[in-house]
Amino acid sequence: MADVNCARCGITREAAGRVLPGPLGDEIEQRICAECWAEWTQRQIRVINHYALQPVRKEDREKLYEFTREFLNLPTEGATPRT
Ligand SMILES: [Zn+2]
């Protein structure tokens, strides 16, 4: 597995790899380390429970992807960077 300079922790280490489909999956593959991804997989269980998300539903899945981006420090595409 290739190393990445992780967008979340700033450390260069083993990449998370292909963990999600689509554009978010591309970004994670290129910019997120395996450890931060592992942390998110634990955290997202609580997020799903807290918001009662059903990832089989498209809108809930999109919401979950937003939380994923927020946690991993990957801004939403087209979003204006906060100054
Ligand atoms: Zn990381």
List keywords for this structure.
single chain; 83 residues; mainly alpha; YggX-like; two-stranded antiparallel sheet; 2 strands; globular; binds zinc ion
Overview of the structural elements:
The chain is mostly helical and 83 residues long. It has a single domain (3-72), classed as Orthogonal Bundle (YggX-like), CATH 1.10.3880. 52% of the residues lie in helices and 7% in strands. The protein is built from 3 helices and 2 strands, in the order ββααα. A two-stranded antiparallel sheet has the order 1-2. Strand 1 and strand 2 (12-14) form a beta hairpin. It is globular and about 35 Å long. The termini are far apart. Bound molecules: zinc ion.
Count of domain modules: 1
Strand content: 5-15%
Please give the largest β-sheet: 2 strands, antiparallel
CATH class: Mainly Alpha
Radius of gyration: 13 Å
Q: Bound compounds, please?
A: zinc ion
| Quaternary organisation | single chain
| Largest sheet strand order | 1-2
- The beta-strand count equals 2
